[in-house]
Write a structure and sequence with these properties.
By secondary structure, the protein is α/β, with parallel strands linked by helices. The protein is 41% helix and 14% strand. The protein is built from 18 helices and 13 strands.
Length: 449
Amino acid sequence: MDYNAWFQCIRCPDERYPLNEIVYECRRCGSLLQVEQGLDVLRTVKTGSEWRQLFDRRYMRTTFPYGSSVWGKKEMVCPVVADENIVSMYEGGSNLLWAERLGNEIGIDELWVKQCGNSHTGSFKDLGMTVLVSMVKQMRSDGQDISAIACASTGDTSAALAAYGAAAGIPVIVFLPKNLVSLSQLVQPIANGALTLSLRTDFDGCMELVQKICREENIYLANSMNSLRIEGQKTVAIELTQQDDWNVPDWVIVPGGNLGNVSALGKGFAEMKEMGIIDRLPGLVVAQAANADPLYQSYLKNFEGFEPQQAKDTLASAIQIGNPVSAERATLILKKFDGVVEHATEDELANACAQADRTGLFTCPHTGVALAALIKLVERKVITRDSKVVVVSTAHGLKFPDFKTQYHAGTLKDKFNVTSRHANAPVEVDADYDMVRDVVVQSIERSMV
């Protein structure tokens, strides 16, 4: 069966473009595009049960490229790329962890954490980048003149693009805001050979520049305004449902910065329901840092208007975005799902991270934003104890060592007004048995109180 997909304007349904056309916005109205998958065909050729069986047969197996949890859903993701042009690093398949102890502490019987940071470059961005880079490789193989791929980034997007571009042999350029990316994130595109530009501006400034250079030069834009990325990222929704034997959670909570991820998750759930793979939709929650919360402010006004803002410094640096590209897409999804937007202060997100870590997790600050939002929604009884909740953890905690060490050293107070309630600084002690024994015994006694 020949499956097809195309770009379509989110406002003008008759404005369509092929996926191999270099276009990021509707040429009629300027709105964002989304990929349409020809769901009428997908519904016709297989029942929901048959799609579930096919995806289960492929899941994490060895037949290229279908062992990838993204490309195992190729018909729903990007059917127009030939298998030989797919650039895959076996992405997806990250753990859906039952965070039982943390759930008990915050008042949720079934709290699950989808650990998207357990991936090749350490974040969920791999899921979208495999699709985008594969499509560029397909276009180049068809003779299109694309000299490079570029993105603006707060860290994770640049890491994913650099790695997949290197694997494909396609030049990569990344625009990073100076001093707003952790050293662990900065070294990733450098190591993978990307031209790495450290600009004296914020993410929004980088985004403005990368769009201009992509328009005027022979360069393909890899930011999430390019909806090919959304198609890979939506497989998080499919996979977390698949990992629970195709049961749909009551709530899914995701950090929100540029807002492509919630757009992707909502699209994944909606398409699964339309194809008969699932029979209901979950509640969706977007969690923003209070220092960069334009969607939250719009939500408070029932989405009647959206005002970009100048994002303030936040420990959740990857979502320090005041003018998110995918705001309109996210708003449409949240209205469809009757979704919720919550925000978290620096103190709330840092302590939520530390509390989660004390139960065995190792969370990035953006996951801390989602956990802090969950705690607030539980306290307000928007989310009840008997709900099944999935928190999407977007990146690996190892990308943010300074955040972790400063929290436990208690040095985040002055700049971010964080009181480290779960601090656990190293204890210096002489190499003397009696002194060591006293420290150990006292620690055990405190833990038993």
